[in-house]
Records
---
Amino acid sequence: MKLWLAKQRYLIDFTLASLARRKTRNLGLLAVYTVLVFMLSSVTLYTHALRQEAARVLTASPEVIVQRMVAGRHDLIPPGYIEKVGRIRGVQKIEGRLWGYYYDAVTKANYTFMVPAENAPVAGEIVVGPALERSRGLAKNNGISFRSYSGKLHSFIVADVLPQASELISADLVLMSEASFRAFFDYPVGHYTDIALSVANPQEVRNVALKLAAALPDARPILRDEVLRTYASIYDWREGIVLALLSAAILAFGILAWEKASGLSAEEKREIGILKAIGWETGDVIKMKFWEGLLISLTAFLAGFVAAYVHVFHFAAALFEPVLKGWAVLYPRFQLTPHIDGLQVATLFFFTVVPYAAAVLVPIWKAAITDPDSVMRS
Amino acid sequence: MRPVDRAIAVLVAGIGAFALCFVDAARLRATAGPDEVERTRLVARLRLTDLALFTEARYTRHPSQADLHSAFQDHPLALEHFPTGSLIAPPGGLTDPSLRVGAGGKAP
Amino acid sequence: MIEVTGIRKAFNQGRDNEYWALDGIDLHIEAKKVTALRGPSGSGKTTLLTIVGCLARPTEGRVHLLGEDISGLPERFLTEIRRKRFGFIFQQFNLIKGLTALDNIILPAYPTGRPRHELLARAEELLAGLKLGHRRDAKVEWLSGGEQQRVAICRALINDPEVVIADEPTANLDTHLAGEFMGILENLADQDRTILLTSHDPLVVESSVVHRVVDMRDGKLIVHG
């Protein structure tokens, strides 16, 4: 064992010395490799943490939301509709939700106006989300006016700002009283945007939804499970687009690595011949190259992953923000809670370290089994 | 110092930093607890259904609430305006009828 | 020490350009003697050297080392024999560029896993013996031809082989350096090593250091009357 270890140390010595000979080239390769691992790890860490966040936070959302559909479009809930829903068994609580969108021409941003079911602000006062506080420079007790879609100017006093920690879910919210909301949007009395149902027994949720669909054919029930599923799939897709962008980089790196690893130069071939002639076994040559592949890919993996971790969880994935925020003017600033999926890290490790190590070994195998007498015939 | 020892030192440092990431993650998770409770409470209080990630269009602000045709709300052949549209898939219930409750869904 | 019988070696066997480099060689190489193979280029001396040194296998014939038939041994064993019993000095020196003289010298001992300080001590001793101690940390590509050859000689001796094989050792040296090499050769012979070399340099083959000269032509030995 001790002898084996001493031998491997010698092989690593040699492989490092030969790497050092083409220092710029190999350092360049290591840098590109590290950046690639960094990008891939950043995407996986970011999306996994975001998905986890959505899955945890949205478990508190209503069990069922009922929309009314008219001609394939989401329409207002007319008076009397809520009462019909109320007759379905298993439903514990029914509330009409009032919310809508408002385009603010000043900041060119969209806000979500909403009437909270509990602790609604008094008429004439609003509670705003943290992104609004930033973009409009609002603070507690400031006044602000919005021009409604009917052209009238409505003034509000900012009663409070939602906590910064909640920005991921509340960035663009403007909370107001029901009276203010109806007045601002000229929202017809008795109408609602949609209906939130709470169902006490989770086993009953699907049944309630089915009964609802049967009783009210124009209703579209949206279950909390669907909401959660939407978010699970959203990040799969976002991962997809970033991966698609990355695939070009991966491909380029693949070519680079393949060229570097598999294209044995005449000099390297000659060296292998020399090593074999002076008493290295084929196995020694292969082990030596194996260490080269492992050292480079392991270093790149560790450096790339650690950098990605710091990037995503300490710098809020700042490099990805331009891609992820799309055309949104209001983009939430949030610090993700690090949830790291061990399996994902293992997969990443496997797909970044193993191919390179293999690409290094394949050509060496061929070169190493050639006869050592070639060095005498040059 | 032999090259092999230097390489081992670098790798040990790397593995240490790698392990530290997980330690740091656990630390951040522990300190993030109260904030998460606050977010969850807000979701419950306001009956929220979506993350405020993209505010540019209603089907990106509330993807789970978007109706079947909202991506084509201007015209069925309208081109996608927002890059976000290429980033998010339609909710499962829109594309896969078996996941949708109501339209032909079966009772469990 | 080494006995070869009925050695034939073909290159490109079975193809149009088939070529027999060696055509029936019987040779006994005596232990602790200096044997020189002499002949024009293309006579097959280097090929014979590769077969005696276990770098290549004969197409036909047998090689006995210390009475043991080694022609049929698997590659692993041949490598081990090469490492333990033979030291090679190549015509082109074949040092590994980018490594220091010391690192080049201890390369053949890597697979043995011997402690590094031991190897370095031995290498320094060898270098000092050839008056090259001051160049120990120089990269080999910065060394002159004569210095490179001396590093190659040290490398050949690091595993303390019984047999030293040298291919055209003076071909890349001027007369002065060639003379120095003959001095080193004499020392090696005095250390009771078996030496086999190829050369057509009169300075080598006519030297008193060489005990026996074997002439070769067209893959055959020329038997002197």
Note: Chain B has two domains: 1-48, 58-99.
---
Amino acid sequence: MSRSKGAIVGIGELKPQRLTSGVTTLEMIAEVSRLAVRDAGLEPAAIDGLLVGPQVGETPQHVPATIAEYLGLAPTMADVVDLGGASGAGMVWRAAAAIEAGMCEAVLCVLANNREEAAPRSPNRNPIREFDVPFGASGANISYALLMQAHMAEYGSTARDFAMIAAAARANAQLNPDAIFCGKPADVEAVLASPMIASPLHLLEIVMPVAGGEAVVVTSAERARSLPKAPVHLLGAGEKVTHRAVSQAPHLTSGPLKSAMARAFAQSGTQAGEMDLLSLYDCYTIMVATTIEDAGLCAPGQFGAWLNDHDLSHKGAKPLNTHGGQLGFGQPDLAGGMTHVVDAVRQLRGDAGERQIGKAGLALVTGNGATMSEATALVLGAA
Amino acid sequence: MSIDLNTLKTPGPTITALTKPFWDAAAEGRLTIQRCKDCSTAVFYPRPICPYCWSKRLAWHDASGKGRLKSFSEVHKPGNPGWLPAAPYVVGLVELAEGPTMLSFILPGTRSLQVGAMLRLAPTAIGGRVLPAFKQVEFGPEEKPK
């Protein structure tokens, strides 16, 4: 295995909520940042790198400066990572790279979102708005439904195959008291009986939007040694961005995560089959199906058989999204992708409590944005 | 779906000077797309430069109107409330015979849709404007797919 490229030494997470009232995103960022920096055992003044997400509708420009000022930070590296659901994973390697470049020593990576009752519709002006929306295709549901239909047509995958992913996420969420669907399990029959939203996509195959926040602190492996928590090392990363609109996707049944994961495995000298935890971005069931296949865990089209052969719970040989995934935990907008990083850190620290996996040496974390078009993969390793 | 699509209050295109030829042609029931004069690749959606070779020598050509269905979805819960009265309706990814893929509205036909179905341009008034929609090619007794 290759040397550490940097370490995650602190995590913070806000309990998801369906709605907030009179709370700004900035306030939530401050709360979750405090949790992560405290968890790292660092003083705020030690944070000299800041990576944040876009703040649609709140702060259109100068986002890092706005957040740094709010938090009282004066970072020597600050930037926006705008990769949709891949933003969280994308922050982790950027933080490590900035540290390695000598720009800073401890980077706060933070994403949060409020969710107010009457959110304004954004006045978009881009090719999707001009060439998809007028034909009746607004929003991500339809894009992922088109990807799912294409997979079914090409490989004969079934509605039941996909429903297994949602059911497994709900099952894992029962062990996470913070998950929005804790106490609300749903089996395959319940998923298949839920309303059709955009065929072949059922309601329970789609994440529930929530308010929330997630943050991690990244520092060098060397610095990590002097901090209280067991570091979780970044061993490899990969990224790829291929398109924005589903109509422009180069492939419908395989995505940019394929090459992002291949790079992350190559950098870390690992293989998909060696992972003790799969923390795979799951905005929709189809996303997990394609990622399992793109990772090489099974042949293209065979994810259904693979799911049938593996126990995806924390007790199984292939634990998948032990926090419940976003399908079980809820999707706090862009912070949703970071839940996969935070859960992997908990597991690799041996800190996951009731849902702790057995052997916890290596984790694959994936992030995905837009329409299976922005992809980041991380291989994380325990200390 | 039995409502008149033209009465829908759906969002129209956000037309720019660059894309106006596409929408002007659409209003006349034509589908016009760009083709690069340098690398000969057909381009959709319209751009100021060819996305394959970055040439600026793009010219408009009417497409054949033939396409193949790469995927489709029957939309029960539209993302935009203007589409609610039309639900469920079908949108699809149409691979044009010229090469590029566009998203379009797929009109109901007599047979159930399958990925791979052959499609034909079917200009349709939707929400107060004519859009380049598509419909499945209906094969008569003497016209069988090859």
Note: Chain B has one domain: 17-136.
